[in-house]
Write a structure and sequence with these properties.
Strand content: 15-25%
Strand order of the largest sheet: 3-2-1-4-5-10-11
Oligomer: single chain
Shape: elongated
Number of strands: 11
Largest sheet: 7 strands, mixed
Bound molecules: 6-O-phosphono-beta-D-fructofuranose
């Protein structure tokens, strides 16, 4: 291989810059050229591609977001868009592509591989942790800590006012952030899509809390939970218990920003190198991940289709802890 390109795609995640830096420096170490594609797959279509040397990624390991920028490209979903992308890949003499992103980004990479034979390798970057083939995705640990810090702050005011808070955290299809940040911040109950919740069970949990003498309560709700969302939950709870002072906080995109934690910087660094070395060893259409502290490669098919399963033990302990 003479040149590898790297792209960050889909939602950004803290630690993507660390992964990008690792890709660039691994290329330099193995004496191959590295090119950065700006603005996700859209940059492949518009030929927004820059040469990256080891110094162009100085001072970014500690920064959130992605210096390459990112996008969810609708043009890339069309055959014409991908044809343009392929032409630009050829024009820039790119032999392999590293895609840092989530399952939508891997679907794009897999299509490029199938349609044009481009060698592609994925690096899992998403705060949701919903990708099969790695114990943790880049950005997840930082998002967890951001959510936990925010919930701690809300607890201060909830306690002062004796209030019941519904707090929505991110996770479009997965409850990893909700479950772990909820346990870490002492939530009374945690609602996630993987556990089929019902409102009566939530009410019993709230009543248990009240009987145990709790004057304030935190309920953490994953964005993808299926009971109707935090605002409806708050409305129904207020109807059932008019004496409760109920509030809602949606944490939103604050969870996607900020300096990556040590764990995300190390993970991004290891996976960036694993991606380059995987390509150099002839791998393609796979994602680099870390399982039980070892680098492993998982086919894009499995990474996209299989589920990263929630640990049932964590669901079980929520009730034990909320006494
Ligand atoms: O996939 C990461 C994620 O942050 C989800 O948790 C969330 O639902 C989604 O992205 C939000 O996407 P956008 O930034 O495009 O609104």
């Amino acid at each position: 291989m003479n040149a590898i390109a790297v792209v960050t795609s889909g939602g950004d995640a803290p630690g993507m810059n660390a992964a990008l830096r690792a890709v660039v420096r691994a290329c330099s170490y193995h004496k191959i050229r590295c090119k950065g594609v700006r603005l996700g797959y859209q940059g492949l279509i518009t030929n927004d591609i820059v040469e990256l040397g080891p110094r162009s990624v100085s001072n970014i390991i500690n920064r959130g977001g992605t210096i390459l920028k990112t996008a969810r490209s609708s043009d890339f979903k069309t055959k014409e868009g991908r044809q343009k992308a392929f032409e630009n890949i050829q024009k820039n003499n790119i032999d392999g592509l590293v895609v840092i992103g989530g399952d939508g980004s891997f679907t794009g990479a897999m299509t490029l591989e199938k349609e044009f034979g481009i060698k592609t390798i994925g690096v899992p970057g998403t705060i949701d942790n919903d990708i099969f083939g790695t114990d943790s995705t880049i950005g997840y640990d930082t998002a967890l800590n951001t959510a936990m810090d925010a919930i701690d702050k809300i607890r201060d005011t909830a306690t002062s006012h004796n209030r019941l808070f519904f707090i929505e955290v991110m996770g479009r299809d997965a409850g990893f952030i909700a479950l772990n940040s909820g346990i870490a911040s002492g939530a009374q109950d945690i609602l996630i899509p993987e556990k089929k919740d019902d409102i009566e069970t939530l009410f019993s949990s709230i009543e248990r809390g009240e009987k145990a003498g709790k004057l304030s309560n935190i309920i953490v709700v994953a964005e993808g939970e299926e009971l109707g969302g935090v605002y409806d939950l708050a409305k129904f709870t207020k109807m059932k218990y008019p004496k409760f002072d109920v509030r809602v906080t949606v944490l939103g995109h604050i969870q996607r920003g900020g300096d990556p934690t040590c764990a995300d910087r190390v993970l991004g660094s290891r996976l960036g190198i694993a991606a380059v070395e995987g390509l150099l060893n002839g791998k393609s259409a796979v994602m680099a991940g870390i399982r039980s502290n070892k680098v492993v490669y998982t086919s894009f098919e499995d990474a996209i289709q299989k589920q990263n399963v929630i640990n049932k033990e964590l669901i079980r302990i929520v009730e034990i802890l909320a006494r």
